[in-house]
């Protein structure tokens, strides 16, 4: 998937400035697609040149003006065309899996530390996703969007939660195996 398409989806959900878009990537779109702020701004400029988005200047008090972006008809058409294209399932390239296989020939203690660190990262990500779900979809005071957009946002988040739980279960299996054979 190109960053262009993730930006188009985000702007269709809610038009906004490059800064606001980057914050959305940090907060929710980042559940399935990450991008740096620089990448987002660079792609926005290109998409504006190509006519996929429109931008208007918005004056701000005491700060430089900002550009507010929205998807144009050409951008909607580009997204629609992309949505109709078939995609192939991603091939898994997993550095940690190769390291685990290589542990038979090297320092298992170093690998054990790396797997524990890796597990902490995934546990933190799962906690972040669960907090987002509580905040945005299930907890008291959650917006509770029952429209198609809200339902689709939630199903993507649930996929991220399921992935993190699966990864943690696998890492627990790896750790148990490393402790058993060490």
UniProtKB/TrEMBL annotation:
All residue ranges annotated as the Transcription regulator PadR C-terminal domain in the record: 92-178
Pfam families reported in the protein's UniProt record: PadR, Vir_act_alpha_C
Domain named Transcription regulator PadR N-terminal: residues: 7-80
InterPro entries: Tscrpt_reg_PadR_C, Tscrpt_reg_PadR_N, WH-like_DNA-bd_sf, WH_DNA-bd_sf
Record's protein name: PadR family transcriptional regulator
